[in-house]
Design a protein that fits this description.
This protein is an all-alpha fold. Helix content is 69%, strand content 0%. Helix 2 packs parallel to helix 10 and helix 5 runs antiparallel to helix 13. It is a multi-pass membrane protein.
Length: 463
């Protein structure tokens, strides 16, 4: 590939030394091969990928944003939503570019192996699995909350959670993302319309449904708030994780017809999601203040709550479906990636796939019942799993492919230092936000806000 100047030629040369595949995209390196004789996973177009990307992000996270805005205030929360949206978009551009140079990477764990060897791969793979098992658990909590609302608590919450788990495992067992993609479109429209119904519903009330209905009361709406270190870290982690699930995009890219088109769905998805988060979150917080429910679909009173949960039920199920599917697909590829069974309709192929969805779904159910408060579950995912995967690891991978910046021009050295900052920021969030979440969970148990694990109490609506 010719360059018009010597500096450009030197940069390509340095990159190629760091990565033999850096110069061009290598179709032969793809995990899933285009085939006419076996199972062809490579059927996802860029529009379908946009729908899947959007549904992965626009899910249970949007339901916890008004509570995070209450902790940070309207101005602080708004800045945080936009800033984290831009931040997460850039970090995935790093991951996407890295994948173009290393097309053999099916997941973020494969990328960690390129930069840091087997130990880095296994640690990252563990974080990935734990992260997506936890967010599958958040999907289970969301579905069980919806069923509780629709049935007027006709059964124990644990039984609704078990039913939600069975349904999510069944739908997640659809083998190809090509087919899950169109289910995602229905799920996205479902939850988007449900959130819109709540947004309209809260603006029609004189005061929030959870607030005292007579006499004076404090709305709790502030422009800037000071929640303290623990509360601030939990709120920031909640907003961060609402758009940080971009590591789940990588397995989707592996099933795209042309993986190099990943930026089209990425930019479309992040623009829509960030704008929607900002609009929906601000309106609900402005009208509900400190009386916002979590998940927020319960903020406009019993009637709107039942209507919104009825509309959102499919979307909540699809959210859990996508999370479980992505986690199971990672394990599936790890087990069968180098065997003939990966793209064949053999008994081993199907047995392995069903085992992956069932085992991970069962783990998600156990964790969802162990940490039943919705906000804390979302924040814990952000601090423990997505801070390393969506902050530190992209920074590290960029440093791996751009080592020549360390001794380059002044601007290149500054850029290099900023990406070191990405790594450090992830470590800070890992420690600080995890401390904040754990402290708040301990306090919630001590005050009785959370019942015992596997209790019939509906804890998901606690703020």
């Amino acid at each position: 590939m010719e360059k018009n100047d010597q500096a450009g030629a030197n940069e390509v040369s340095d990159s190629e030394r760091a990565s033999p595949r850096a110069a061009e995209f290598d179709e032969d390196g793809e995990v899933f091969k285009k085939t006419t004789t076996g199972v062809d996973f490579r059927k996802v177009g860029w529009f379908n990928a946009t729908v899947i990307f959007t549904k992965i992000l626009f899910a249970t996270g949007v339901l916890s944003l008004p509570s995070a805005l209450y902790a940070l205030g309207a101005v602080g929360g708004s800045i945080s939503i936009v800033a984290w949206g831009v931040f997460n978009t850039y970090c995935f551009v790093i991951l996407g570019n890295f994948r173009v140079r290393h097309p053999n990477c099916h997941s973020i764990a494969d990328m960690a192996e390129v930069a840091g060897g087997v130990i880095a791969k296994e640690v990252t793979g563990l974080l990935f699995i734990v992260g997506y098992v936890l967010v599958t658990g958040s999907g289970i909590v969301g579905v069980s909350t919806a069923l509780n609302a629709l049935s007027h608590h006709a059964a124990c919450t644990v039984w609704w959670s078990f039913l939600a788990t069975v349904v999510i495992i069944a739908t997640a067992s659809i083998r190809k993302l090509e087919h899950v993609g169109w289910l995602s479109l229905v799920g996205f429209l479902s939850i988007y319309i449900a959130v819109f119904i709540v947004v309209v519903g809260v603006t029609t009330r004189d005061r929030p449904a959870a607030a005292p209905q007579e006499g004076p009361y404090d709305l709790g709406y502030v422009a800037v708030n000071n929640p303290g270190f623990a509360g601030g870290m939990v709120a920031s982690s909640t907003i961060f994780v609402s758009s940080a699930g971009t590591s789940a995009f990588l397995p989707v890219i592996s099933e795209m017809r042309n993986p190099r088109d990943y930026k089209k769905p990425l930019y479309s998805c992040m623009t829509l999601v960030t704008a929607s988060y900002l609009a929906f979150g601000l309106v609900v917080y402005r009208w509900c203040g400190m009386w916002v429910a979590s998940p927020s679909l319960g903020s406009a009173g019993q009637t709107i709550k039942m209507v919104s949960y009825g509309v959102a039920l499919i979307g909540l199920i699809v959210s859990g479906t996508l999370y479980l599917h992505v986690g199971a697909k990672y394990v599936f590829v790890r087990i069968l990636g180098k065997t003939k069974h990966l793209q064949s309709n053999s008994a081993v192929h199907w047995g392995t796939w069903f085992a992956c969805t069932i085992v991970l779904g069962a783990l998600a159910f156990i964790l969802a019942e162990s940490i039943p408060i919705f906000n804390y579950l979302i924040a814990l995912v952000g601090s423990v799993c997505f801070a390393p995967m969506a902050m530190s690891l992209p920074g590290w991978l960029w440093l791996y492919d751009h080592g020549h910046y360390r001794t380059g021009t002044l601007v290149q050295k500054i850029v290099y230092l900023l990406h070191i900052g990405l790594v450090l920021l992830g470590i800070f969030f890992l420690v600080g936000a995890t401390y904040g979440v754990v402290q708040q969970i301990i306090d919630a148990y001590a005050t009785g806000l959370i019942g015992s694990a596997f209790s019939c109490a509906d804890n998901s609506n606690s703020s």
